[in-house]
Predict the structure of Ubiquinone hydroxylase UbiL.
Amino acid sequence: MTVPVQTSVQTSPARPSPAAPPRFAVAVVGAGAAGLAAALALARDGVETALVGRHAPVADGRTVALLDGSVRFLTALGAWSEIAPHASPLAELQIVDDTGSLFRPPPARFSAAEIGLDAFGWNVESARLVETLRSQARTTPGLTLFEADSAGMRLADGAAVLDLEDGRALSAQLVVGADGGRSPLRAASGLRTREWSYPQAALTTLLAHDRPHRDISTEFHTRNGPFTLVPLPGGHRSSLVWVTAERAAKRLSGLDDADLAAAVEHQARSMLGAMRIDGPRGLVPMRGLSVERPVADRLALIGEAAHVFPPIGAQGLNLGLRDAAALRDAVFSAREANRDPGAPASLAGFGRTRGVDARLRGAAVDMLNRSLLTSLLPVDALRGLGLVALSAIPPLRRMVMREGVQPRLGAPSLMR
């Protein structure tokens, strides 16, 4: 009798399929102020949001003047109550023509009270603003933090996939590029950009001074650019943004504290008395950048990823916060209509209004700066007449002040 031999067949265990990356409605790339504000605004509305980016230290010594609309936005996010004690109101703005022009107008003064506000805005150290927003992001429901840099974005299966430098990945219906002026997401998107530069640099630092600033921000218009003193809390501290010729800015940045303080006091005509340097210094290149339109396939750009301004007129970050608030409105509208937030129809209005706003603000800053750099008499005359008209015609002055701090064009709901 033959006994059948049983043979056993050994099979290799099945390899587990790679886990699908976590999915989100929106992924914000960039952990600066604009990116943080956008992520917080979306999560606050119940949008499943990822925030991608290392929480690197913020350079000390830089401040930002948050205009009224930005303060409203931060209040809606629940962040302003922590920032306010460390901010100084900008109740008045004084412009002094120091160009030496034949058409030099008298100093012009603008008061926030004239348009029913306590202040045009509030000046706060950038590090304080960002750290407050980061602290809030760590405890906000519906907001997942990936504290790693993005390694790139690709499209797959009707979504965007973000690969991170630490090997992780995630997918989202919409990616928000808030990754700065050298934005890798913008570069990879193929969006057309325009870049320019000026023969200037901006020296920044913090100052202590003998006389009180009385919540007045003073801007001297010089032939090399604006020299601006902005109040800080305490009454006897201010931040400095001194825009001047590039070579002169480098020379000033190399002075010791005593010599630099003397140079600042001289340029300020001793308006605030004796000065001393009260913080670190920065040297900011004067350059500009704009994109033709801030949207691409499943991508929306905000902040300096979409526009870079020189530090004149407090426009840069305030425009970035308007981007963030407007993006929240676009995503909210898409959800209300049961639309994909990353679809072209969902982003069309955002791209149109944000592009127009950025171009208008950029043109105003560029025109002011270039008008100071030329000594052509017609240009000097027009600039001088403009300041005289603003001083002499109250309705015109109030209209310009309102537009400066509360722009009506496409104003996002959280800034109204």
User: Anything to note?
Assistant: The chain has one domain: 23-415. The longest strand covers residues 193-209. Residues 66 and 397 are 20 Å apart (CA to CA).
